[in-house]
UniProtKB/TrEMBL annotation:
Keyword Transferase: yes
Function: Catalytic component of the NuA4 histone acetyltransferase (HAT) complex which is involved in epigenetic transcriptional activation of selected genes principally by acetylation of nucleosomal histones H4, H3, H2B, H2A and H2A variant H2A.Z. Acetylates histone H4 to form H4K5ac, H4K8ac, H4K12ac and H4K16ac, histone H3 to form H3K14ac, and histone H2A to form H2AK4ac and H2AK7ac. The NuA4 complex is involved in the DNA damage response and is required for chromosome segregation. The NuA4 complex plays a direct role in repair of DNA double-strand breaks (DSBs) through homologous recombination.
InterPro entries tied to this protein: Acyl_CoA_acyltransferase, HAT_MYST-type, MYST_HAT, WH-like_DNA-bd_sf, Zf-MYST
Protein name as it appears in the record: Histone acetyltransferase
EC nos: 2.3.1.48
Start and end residues of each stretch annotated as Disordered: 312-337
GO molecular function: chromatin binding; histone acetyltransferase activity; transcription coregulator activity; zinc ion binding
Signal peptide feature range: none
Positions of the catalytic residues: E196 (proton donor/acceptor)
Keyword Transit peptide in annotation: no
Naturally occurring in which organism (per UniProt): Funneliformis geosporum
Length: 337
């Protein structure tokens, strides 16, 4: 992992193809950076024969050579991810990208992520997913930092399918920020959620870090004793994840007399821990900066708007918009099922 060296363009300078017969992309050029890849991603075979893959940091198009990448850079119209910007705080921006509307972008994103993920298998079937892309803004544009994907309808209430911070941005708190954001969306949906399993080793470390901190914060700020259900309601974490986190931190104690469990809180220990976390200065999500409504509702309201535009609403529906929304919601759910 190193800043990109300036290389003068030479049309004769064709990319060097592997001498051995193993197709494997060993590094990617991405914006001003070069990164070693960790795992193999299923790029079309003709791309896998080059040791370095060039990826446009804005549209995520992948290319075989610096020559092609430089030409692309001159004409690429994008300076930020497609979709809607739903969150902004200073330099940090988050975009919601629909796999159905921006299929190529999302497929390219999954291929990029696969180079740093060993077990996820989603690359081409992106339509059932929304992608939340975090960027850092400067004068040049919105630079990709990381993302997570989320099923539009998850029967198991997964609130994250895949999560990634690009290696050049790791260990600066962005993974934690993405996780915090995923729980904010779940909170707005009035649900609880958990990441899709299995988690990678790094995923597990990051989630344990987040879960512990968020539970410690709530317990630290609460003057009263809290039940696991109350913790779940406040944090949008599942009861299972709360129990697991409390157990790992030795905070669940069994009462031998009546066989029930108690949450044991050492306020000093929690406060010390939270002070250490705060001193890292990692970015935090500001819930008031989110401009977003959950997917189903947005979709239905847009449909209502379309119908109104076409002037096809009858008088009754125009006088009872809520009825109409409910009716559209029913139709929509029927259509989806
Ligand atoms: N080693 C030890 N602890 C770690 C590591 C690590 N490599 N990475 C994160 N942690 C823990 C630490 O406690 C860290 O706090 P600290 O740096 O102050 O010690 C804490 O998690 C928060 O780390 P962040 O900086 O917020 O996380 P980061 O931005 O590095 O992203 C992520 C974490 C997304 C898991 C990243 O490592 C990544 O993209 N890995 C490759 C892809 C992957 O494995 N994704 C998860 C798959 S599971 C799923 O998708 C549901
Ligand atoms: Zn581009």
């Amino acid at each position: 992992m190193q800043p990109r060296q300036e290389i003068t363009f030479d049309i004769e300078d064709q990319p060097q193809i592997f001498a051995d017969a193993t197709p494997k992309i060993r590094s990617i050029r991405f914006g001003d950076w070069e990164m070693d890849t960790w795992y193999v991603a299923p790029y079309p075979e003709e791309y896998s024969w080059y040791p370095t893959l060039y990826i446009c940091e804005y549209c995520l198009k992948y290319m075989k050579s610096k020559y092609i990448a430089d030409r692309h850079k001159m004409k690429c119209p994008m300076k930020h991810p497609p979709g809607d910007e739903i969150y902004r705080d200073g330099q940090i921006s988050i975009f919601e990208v629909d796999g159905r509307k921006n299929t190529i972008y999302c497929q390219n994103l999954c291929l990029l992520a696969k180079m740093f993920l060993d077990h996820k298998t989603l690359y081409y079937d992106v339509e059932p997913f929304l992608f939340y892309v975090m960027t850092e803004i400067n004068d040049m544009g919105c630079h990709f930092v990381g993302y997570f994907s989320k099923e539009k309808r998850s029967p198991l209430n997964y609130n994250v399918s895949c999560i990634l911070t690009l290696p050049i941005h790791q260990r600066k708190g962005y993974g934690n920020l993405l996780i915090e954001f995923s729980y904010l969306l779940t909170k707005r949906e009035n649900k609880t959620g958990s990441p899709e399993k299995p988690l990678s080793d790094l995923g597990l470390l990051s989630y344990r870090y987040y879960w512990r901190n968020v539970l410690f914060e709530v317990l630290n700020n609460s003057p009263d004793a809290l039940s696991i259900e109350e913790l779940s309601r406040v944090t949008s974490m599942t009861v299972n994840d709360i129990i697991a986190t409390l157990q790992i931190n030795n905070m669940l104690v069994r009462d031998e007399e009546n066989g029930t469990y108690r949450i044991v809180v050492d306020k000093d220990l929690i406060k010390n821990h939270l002070d250490k976390v705060t001193s890292k200065g990692y970015p935090r999500i500001k819930s008031e900066n989110l401009r977003w409504t959950p997917f189903i509702l947005t979709r239905v309201l847009r449909r209502v708007q379309d119908l109104e535009n076409e002037r096809s609403l009858d008088m009754h529906e125009q006088q009872n918009p809520i009825d109409h929304i409910n009716k559209s919601l029913d139709e929509n759910m029927d259509a989806d099922d």
